[in-house]
Amino acid sequence: MRYLFLFLVLFSLQGGAQNSNAHNFVYVATDGDDNNPGTFNQPVKTIGKAQQLVRTSKKYGATVYIRGGEYRMTKPVVFTPEDSGTEIYPVAYKAYPGEIPVFLGSKALALKWKKGKGGVYTAKVDKTLDFERLYANGEKQILARYPNYNEDVLPFNGWAEDAIAPERIKTWKRPEGAYLHVLHGAQWGGYHYRITGVDNKGEVILEGGWQNNRPEKGMHKKFRFVENIKEELDTINEWYLDKEKNTLYWKPSTGVNLKNVKIEVPQTKHLIEIKGTEANPVKHLHIEGIHFKHSTRTFMEADERLLRSDWAIYRGGAVFIDGVEHVSVKHSNFEDLGGNAVFVNDYARKVEISHNRITRIGASAICFVGDTTAVRSPVFGYSEYVTYEDMDKVIGPKNNLYPANCIAHDNLIFDFGQIEKQTAGVQIDMAMSITASHNSIYKAPRAGINVGDGTWGGHIIEYNDVFNTVRETSDHGSFNSWGRDRFWSSSRERVNAYVKEHPELPLLDAIKTTHIRNNRFRCDHGWDIDLDDGSTNYEVYNNLCLSNGIKLREGFYRKAFNNITVNNSMHMHVWYDNSGDLVYNNIFGAWYWTIRLPEVWGTMLDYNLFDMTEKPIHLNDGGRDTHSIIGNPQFLDPAKGDYRIAPTSPALALGVHNFDMDNFGVVSEHLKAEAETPVLPKYTPGLNAGEEPKRDNTEYDWMGGKVKNLVGMGEVSSTGMHAEIGVILTSVPKDSKMGELGFKEGDVIFEWWGGELENVKILLVNYKSRPRGHDIPVTVLRNQAKVQLHVN
To answer: Cα Rg for the chain, rounded, in angstroms?
Structure first.
């Protein structure tokens, strides 16, 4: 019987089982023929033909084996409900064992090269052909740009303040069609513009800039570059396509054989689309073992605002999934893509994205994004808000057009956001109960994992290894979130008043608790964990934070316990009254970093161990940390990343317990072999490694109140300033002259009489020497909005 069973299995794999009473096998090969029956010996040539065969004979499920080789896509393969399987009899499209099928969105060009001046070669291309990315022998070439590409320079691999200076513009004969890429004024992501011409002042005319949902900060004055300009083709590996002359210009590197060089130019945005509806979803369809390469850039289409997050997005990816149930993409390789790798859209249930390698991606790696129609009382502008009277008070989503119960597991994600900076390794927005587990995420321009809002919570973020993040932007974390849900306003006073009267408001959208647990985070340019504006209903525990600790900005009902923040602490920014926050059983490497907290700091801060040798002045003040202590936590082997505590550690008596230090990141052996791990910090017991302020932090008297310099990244973040400049008002008594003139505590004065105000000493000098009898215009930032006041 055993030999008969083995014979039947081998017989079916060779295409012998093709009847309606057996699992169906179809074979695809690059040398196949669509007139063939799709057997092992007579495979078909295209995925489309395989679909037709499967649709007619899949009663007992089907497996389409795709043989190794290159499959060029002139348009995406589209799977519809007709391609569905069942729970018992699923349908799978997968690589044949031991072989690698490559789905390419590029066209291969056969070109005749002609040598020109300065090592630049030219070739004629088909007049119907248009492209903005080019690969030579598999290596990405650089679209002619200024300044030149430099692997070691961030942001943008090279930037120049004079990228669009009139003097430079004069050197361009035809800038139409060029692009300007520039960081956000506060470095909260980036903008992208198409240059459409030059005006009579010699300045470029721009179209675009819709990729960031916080436009009030404008463009960064320095961090910018331009590309797709012929005159900037001045170094090896740069190229330019003259569309009017149908001529490709390229300066190849030394040693390239132009007779045999393989030139490929991406032509399609999507390679696979799995598209159904809520009423008729695609079900039980699985993609496995495919290599996805060469999609086009999509940054000019990233124009959809995602509620009040900082994001605008393009809904699409190399693999686009919408209207599905029980669909998976596994064991695949995504690389050299111009936009998102995987996008799970709107109605999607039990989608699994797992065991994949994702690298060299223009935008985000994996996105789970719902539809704004599912959100009650949706708001899109940061400074906009909904009055209680106008608010939809029903709990939870309005419809089912959002991803839920989906998984991103065991994915190696690195070097993404190469073009777009408003990106993440895993992006979650308007979704419910998404699990991101055992992913290794690094080389990120912004956050590694980003949650755009509180709708509708229930996410599990666990066992991830996220580091080397926020490399090109500012004021984010390796994990980053917002909770600017329907209860939220940029005015803390307004939210306090709303919630005092209607305490149910914070949980109308964040209906399920999100758990951040058992992760290793390191962010050297932000926070390891950053729960920003309004992030509500979180439990943060068993996390190892290696650099900049945990930030809890305004929000409700957060529990932070059993975390270790090496050389750092909890950053508590502008908390709400009665926030319900609990911070306990943690090991902190420094005293709290606090900014504008209410008199009562949440519900409980206690039973924490501070890895310090000297007692902080404020320890045990105000009923806080009554049982907290200072002491050596006795980490077992911090030099090797083992921050478990010894049996004699004083932290044990406080309730701190050990958690696994060997289970972060990817688990597949081949992914673990390639994955990098974070650089471990230098650690000395009792050393408070908090960075010394670079600016004077002294308070000064001014007009009956108190002022001081804006100091540190925490104050920059909490106020919404773009840099460490300006003067913050720390005390404004109502009966003071400051109060009479309309100033409020927390205001940041950054302009005095039309000029930038650098620091408090300049303010005091300017005020003392002001001309009497004049109203001097002063601009302050209040609740991240500009307010014009006057001083007399």
So the answer is: 29
Amino acid 53 reads L
pLDDT of the residue at 577: 96
User: Beta strands 77-79 and 272-275: pairing type?
Assistant: parallel
Nearest to 326 by CA among 285, 354, 290, 289: 285
Distance between CA atoms of residues 774 and 777, nearest Å: 9
433 vs 407: CA distance, rounded Å: 9
Alpha-carbon distance values, 166 to 53, 169, 172, 205, 234 (Å): 61, 5, 10, 12, 20
Q: CB neighbours (10 Å) of residue 722?
A: 21
The per-residue pLDDT for 764 is 86
- For the chain, give percent helix, strand, coil, nearest 5: 10, 35, 55
Torsions phi, psi for 3 (to 5 deg): -70, -35
Cβ atoms of 468 and 678 closer than 8 Å: yes
Query: Where do we find the tokens 């060089």?
Result: 261
Structure-token pair, residue 560: 């932070």
Half-sphere exposure of 391 (CA within 13 A, CB side): 22
Residues 360 and 157: beta-carbon distance below 8 Å: no
In the chain, count of helices (H) and strands (E)? 9, 64
Q: In 3D, which of 42, 19, 45 has the Cα closest to residue 31?
A: 45
End-to-end CA separation in angstroms for the chain: 100
- How many Å apart are CA 415 and CA 452, to the nearest integer? 21
CA–CA dist 457, 155 (Å, integer): 32
3-state secondary structure of 309: coil
Centre a 10 Å sphere on the Cβ of residue 60 and count the other Cβ atoms it contains: 16
Amino acid identity, position 731: S
> What Å distances lie between residue 149 and 111, 141, 145, 444, 687, CA to CA?
25, 10, 7, 18, 41
Q: Which residues pair with 25 in a beta bridge?
A: 63
CA distances from 679 to 466, 520, 638, 640 (A): 11, 12, 12, 10
Other C-beta atoms lying within 10 Å of the C-beta of residue 88: 8
How far, in Å, CA of 469 to CA of 421, rounded?
A: 12
d(CA 13, CA 26): 9
Tokens of 761: 């000493």
Neighbours of 311 (CB within 10 A): 28
In angstroms, the CA 261 to CA 255 distance is 11
Residue with tokens 């926020």: 470
CA–CA dist 254, 235 (Å, integer): 11
Q: What is the pLDDT of residue 21?
A: 59
Q: What is the DSSP letter of 679?
A: P
Closest C-alpha among 282, 426, 445, 437 to residue 343 = 426
> Which amino acid, 441?
I
Strand partners, 480: 450, 530
Q: Find the helix or strand (DSSP H, E) in which 442 lies.
A: strand 440-442
Alpha-carbon gap, residue 544 to 564, rounded angstroms: 5
Q: Which residue has the tokens 């900037």?
A: 232
Residue 707, beta-bridge partner list: 700, 729
Strand ranges (DSSP E) for 96-250?
Answer: 101-104, 106-109, 114-115, 121-124, 135-136, 139-140, 142-143, 145-146, 179-184, 190-198, 204-208, 219-227, 238-242, 247-250
Low-confidence ranges of the chain (pLDDT < 70): 1-21, 688-693
SS3 assignment, position 288: strand
Handedness of CA 57, 58, 63, 67 (dihedral sign): positive
- Rounded CA gap, 415 and 295, in Å? 16
Print the SS3 string covering 248-279. EEECCCCCCCCCCCCEEEECCCCCEEEECCCC
Phi-psi region of 738 (alpha: psi -120 to 50; beta: other; left: phi over 0): alpha
Q: How many residues does the chain have?
A: 792
- The single residue listed with the structure tokens 């859209």 is 345
